[in-house]
Amino acid sequence: MKLNIALLAGDGIGPEVIEQAVKVSDAIAKKFNHEINWKPALTGAAAIDAVGEPYPDETHEICASSDAVLFGAIGHPRFDNDPSAKVRPEQGLLKMRKKLGLFANVRPTFTFPSLLDKSPLKRERIEGTDLVFLRELTGGIYFGEKGRRDEGETAFDNCVYTRAEVQRLAKKGFELAMTRNKKLCCVDKANVLETSRLWRETVQAMEKDYPEVEVSYEFVDAVAMRLVQWPNSYDVLITENLFGDILTDEASVISGSMGLMPSASLGADIGLFEPIHGSYPQATGLNIANPMATVLSAAMMFENFGLQEEGKAIREAVNKALNKGIVTEDLADGGTSYGTSEVGDWLAENI
Amino acid sequence: MKLNIALLAGDGIGPEVIEQAVKVSDAIAKKFNHEINWKPALTGAAAIDAVGEPYPDETHEICASSDAVLFGAIGHPRFDNDPSAKVRPEQGLLKMRKKLGLFANVRPTFTFPSLLDKSPLKRERIEGTDLVFLRELTGGIYFGEKGRRDEGETAFDNCVYTRAEVQRLAKKGFELAMTRNKKLCCVDKANVLETSRLWRETVQAMEKDYPEVEVSYEFVDAVAMRLVQWPNSYDVLITENLFGDILTDEASVISGSMGLMPSASLGADIGLFEPIHGSYPQATGLNIANPMATVLSAAMMFENFGLQEEGKAIREAVNKALNKGIVTEDLADGGTSYGTSEVGDWLAENI
Ligand SMILES: CC(C)[C@H](C(=O)O)[C@@H](O)C(=O)O
Ligand SMILES: CC(C)[C@H](C(=O)O)[C@@H](O)C(=O)O
């Protein structure tokens, strides 16, 4: 296969972890006879510094004309405590999601047996957890009209959803559930929000098309609780943008393997693949960041092209490294640890 | 003191747990020479059944003319999966909050040493946790304009906040922090939402009036993570209505003492006090529900009248019961357990 992959390293540790994912992907390409054409482009604070824009048009053109996007991380602390900053890296992210039509954010939470003890949860609570969130990513309160009135004294944000938006996300949810344990949980706040009632009635109407899928409806506050209590009771969860933002992050820390969690954002055409961890500014340039989440994001990318064997080869290399202790300091428990690029080299060699 | 207390037992186990809180409060009144005049009123599904309305005007008049409201729980499963039901118990709750002006929901999460092992979190993560959420309760997306357009195909919910609404909530937060560890965390999503930017800038402007309070600003998704990772790093957290709904429920399960957590909803005049657990329909009438959260809500009520000794006496009785194993089956670990009313009797006798 010939693959054009846009490479958006971004900020902080982004460039370091992306470099390792490139090494590993190139090793996969060599082994399985693919050709990858990497197309680097600017994004995030790095792009603001270079061209004054977090998601420049040129970057968009590169992404839009590629088969997939491999993404590092964005965000820089100098923007965080300045709510009035005119240009923020996050705007680039939102613009990118919208312009590339990436409406479904796929966020798995699973456990690695060797890392179970890193979880803040007791072993018996977390064991066997293997769930996936599908978060709607281009609608809701993120993209509704927002602003001020009364001379700045009143602020508003509008949350809007159409039935079609819910349907396309829910469809992916039902289909994903069919390939897994056939359980789907629709997370909403239908006891308060009209948008949630639209979500619930739309999913209810789709149930008949997937008679094998067992569908449940839970309020977002209840899910926030059950994720901590019984995370292994879930299979596939679908939800709107803001609830998904909160719950997927909550879900990510329960496993003890947060630094290893990949994600995908899918749309009609191309997909974007990125680790869930952020730009981790304090670690920038120190060669200590864990590249495995980004490497596993590359695995999701291959799998999304239908290249299951390739994805599996990456997952196996990561498992092997974990078992052999070829890990960065976050996973070394004070024992021998390796640098970001050493872990990347080892993984590439073991493909 | 002469106290008029509106008594809203509500649905499910509400009446049973409220009965115990009344016993205990009456024992306090006797011991400390107060006079409590209980004024029962209908709410929730019970009120819908009786008069077709979850928060009838008569109930409002009783509440508004009382010094405080003691509340059980509302909610009935027959309304849950019917998003189109015209009258829902939750509407009564929202109407009550709004009409009584209960803008600050106070939700402590603390630990009882004897219950630490009930937490889904590891002991070292949860030990020493003692945090309080102040959730804004009468604004935001709960009360903004909501509805449908395009013949029902599009739904919308509007989130609105004014600076004054943020200020009165934040003021309570700063004041509460001053009586505790002097740390205040403002939880928002200022990287995306305009209402959050208003929250952040308003709180920032108030910092100078409380120079001793150490203020931090965290995104709601980050807090959803840190609550599971390091709950004991928080002191007082302030946040808007919907974030508060999700995060306070998440916080409630981390302690292992969820069934014991009380809450208060405060406004300009009267306060409402209620356990955080719901109506627990499956347990209705079985005399197995744990009354301690409701009893501790009564303690918060006395403390809010400035009656600290009275509150303390209740807390001590609860601690004594826990240490002696005078508990309902949820806390009995398969050992001897007592009924709801027996626990209530024991607490009242031990005041
Ligand atoms: C940075 C921010 C805008 C973003 C979001 O809220 O979507 C992030 O939290 C995420 O989840 O990818
Ligand atoms: C029942 C529901 C409307 C309510 C809310 O969302 O406020 C409940 O979850 C709560 O937190 O008191």
TrEMBL record, chains A, B:
For this protein, what reaction is catalysed? (2R,3S)-3-isopropylmalate + NAD(+) = 4-methyl-2-oxopentanoate + CO2 + NADH
> According to the UniProt entry, what is the EC number of this protein?
1.1.1.85
Query: Residues in domain Isopropylmalate dehydrogenase-like?
Result: 4-347
- Please give the InterPro entries that the UniProt record associates with this protein: IsoCit/isopropylmalate_DH_CS, IsoPropMal-DH-like_dom, Isopropylmalate_DH
Principal place where this protein is found? cytoplasm
Main enzyme class: oxidoreductase
Q: Which UniProt keywords are given for this protein, alphabetically ordered?
A: Amino-acid biosynthesis, Branched-chain amino acid biosynthesis, Cytoplasm, Leucine biosynthesis, Magnesium, Manganese, Metal-binding, NAD, Oxidoreductase
**Which parts of the sequence are marked as the site Important for catalysis?**
142, 189
Q: Keyword Magnesium on this protein?
A: yes
Q: State the free-text cofactor note.
A: Binds 1 Mg(2+) or Mn(2+) ion per subunit.
Q: Which GO terms describe its molecular function?
A: 3-isopropylmalate dehydrogenase activity
Q: Which residues bind substrate?
A: 97, 107, 135, 221
Binding locations of Mg(2+): 221, 245, 249
SMART domains named among the record's database cross-references: Iso_dh
The subcellular location is: Cytoplasm
Q: Does the keyword Oxidoreductase apply?
A: yes
Q: Which cofactor does it need?
A: Mg(2+); Mn(2+)
What pathway is this protein said to act in by its record? Amino-acid biosynthesis; L-leucine biosynthesis; L-leucine from 3-methyl-2-oxobutanoate: step 3/4
**Annotated NCBIfam families:** leuB
Concerning its family, UniProt says: Belongs to the isocitrate and isopropylmalate dehydrogenases family. LeuB type 1 subfamily.
The protein's assembly and partners = Homodimer.
Q: What does the protein in this record do?
A: Catalyzes the oxidation of 3-carboxy-2-hydroxy-4-methylpentanoate (3-isopropylmalate) to 3-carboxy-4-methyl-2-oxopentanoate. The product decarboxylates to 4-methyl-2 oxopentanoate.
This chain belongs to which protein, by name?
Answer: 3-isopropylmalate dehydrogenase
UniProt organism field: Polaribacter batillariae
Gene that this sequence comes from: leuB
